[in-house]
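Worked example

This section walks through a single chain of length 342. The input is the sequence exactly as stored; nothing has been trimmed or padded.
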Amino acid sequence: MPPPGVADVQNMLESDELLVEYYSVGDRFLAFLIGKNAFHVFPHLAASPDVRASIRGLNFQLAKFHLQPTYLKKHAASLLAAMRHHLQTLHGQLIAPIAAAFGSSKRLIIVPHHMLHYVPFHALFDGENYLIDKYAVSYAASASVLRICRSRKASGKGRGLILAVPDSLTPHINDEVEALRLLMPDADVFVGEEAGEDKLRKYASTAGKIHIAAHGVFRADNPEFSSLRLGKNWLNLFDLFNLRLGAEITTLSACETGMSDVLGGDELLGLARGFLRAGTPSLVVSLWTVNDRSTAQLMCRFYQGLHDGLTKADALREAILEVKSNFPHPYYWAPFILLGKS
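Given that input, the structure is written out below as tokens.
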């Protein structure tokens, strides 16, 4: 299938949607903005070395959350200020130069390129507001992948499927599961050793929604072996290629499930690619190691939004805003992104 042109993209967009596709040429980024009735090109955005430096600063701040809770509590204000500094710098590099062309759009679809796959665009900060405060934000690996996701008709019309593997480091996964039982009372629920790969293979093709709460690991040294803990075993990218998912949405409530290695041609290797290839049109994944308490709250609010009839992007936005009101630092509320159909 040939890549979609501007008219093809416009035809698949709603009137309030704007696709923002970044591309790296030489040592600079440019951006294409496509709306239902608009098309803009911004050829001279930030230099790649400057963006890379900002991302390094952002990752350095996120890494501090591996430190002791007493340190995090004592320095909460300075940690938030430092995080906002890097998010504001990235906003100035990637959003501010193009924001005037957003017009009346209410939903942004971000298509990153190269290192930008690691940027939480919805958390970029203009000095007063985060992008998520103004827009529902979703992501796509490319316009071609987005077109495929939007054309898919979910075959899973049956019960939901919840697989959860809690341990001593993630006790709030149990709270997450109990809350989701109420929101999906007909779901098949498997916890601990019972939540194995065999259950995913048995129920994945017919489940209407799939929710997996478990440890995920991104292998930067060998992305094909990035994996997800199910039961006693680990599910990797090659295992996912043999799955057939019929669910309208698959949620990976786990650590680093959205992390991928960016290869030549901007092809991604990681768990996200595996689940999208397996057939799910919409995927919720995390960009960094998550806090299980804030994640439990976010997931409960997200599924409540879906239950209430919100779109996936709007449900995730409402969930993020609720968690943000209780946990101000983006580490807690910004790790999860929606890929594909919104």
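What to look for: The longest strand covers residues 17-25.
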